[in-house]
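User: Reviewer 2 asked us to show a designed sequence for the structure in our supplementary figure. I'm pasting the structure tokens here. Could you produce the per-position amino acids so we can include them in the response letter?
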């Protein structure tokens, strides 16, 4: 490989694309962004959020409700405010495998986690029992099982 090819980025502005570089596909761009984000050191808030998540998942949590903490010192992201009180199902949990709950507002691994983005102070409230979930999230089998247990 020639030195010119190796150091072709020198003297070029960031906004200019490399003339010999193929354009990146969207999935590769998002993968690159995720890898870059994975290399950044975690903030103390992110470490706390990861600890809470691992404790909840290992403890048998079945879902998580998004809690938006806005206000003077909170999260100012409008997409986070729109998620307030949304219930996300934890993929692979026991209730989902038995067919007792539906998909809810989505899965926790399909959206950004609380405290993952810079300046976010949102949180998850984890649910461990069927009775804690809103009835809209239970399937017919789940409602029948819950009624049987309540008697």
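Assistant: Here is a per-position design you can include in the supplement:
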């Amino acid at each position: 490989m020639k030195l010119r090819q190796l150091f072709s980025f020198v003297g070029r502005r960031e906004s200019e694309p490399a003339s010999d570089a193929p354009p990146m596909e969207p999935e590769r761009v998002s993968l690159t962004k995720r890898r870059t984000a994975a290399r950044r050191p975690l903030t103390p808030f992110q470490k706390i959020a990861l600890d809470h998540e691992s404790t909840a998942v290992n403890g048998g949590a079945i879902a998580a409700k998004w809690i938006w903490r806005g206000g003077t010192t909170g999260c100012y992201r409008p997409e986070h405010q729109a998620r307030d009180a949304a219930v996300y199902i934890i993929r692979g949990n026991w209730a989902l495998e038995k067919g007792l709950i539906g998909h809810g507002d989505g899965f926790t691994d399909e959206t950004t986690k609380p405290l993952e983005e810079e300046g976010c102070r949102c949180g998850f409230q984890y649910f461990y029992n069927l009775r804690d979930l809103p009835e809209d999230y239970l399937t017919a089998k789940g409602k029948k099982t819950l009624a049987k247990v309540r008697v």
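For the response letter, you might also mention the following. The CA atoms of residues 63 and 90 lie 5 Å apart. The helical segments are 3-6, 26-39, 44-58, 78-82, 94-97, 140-150.
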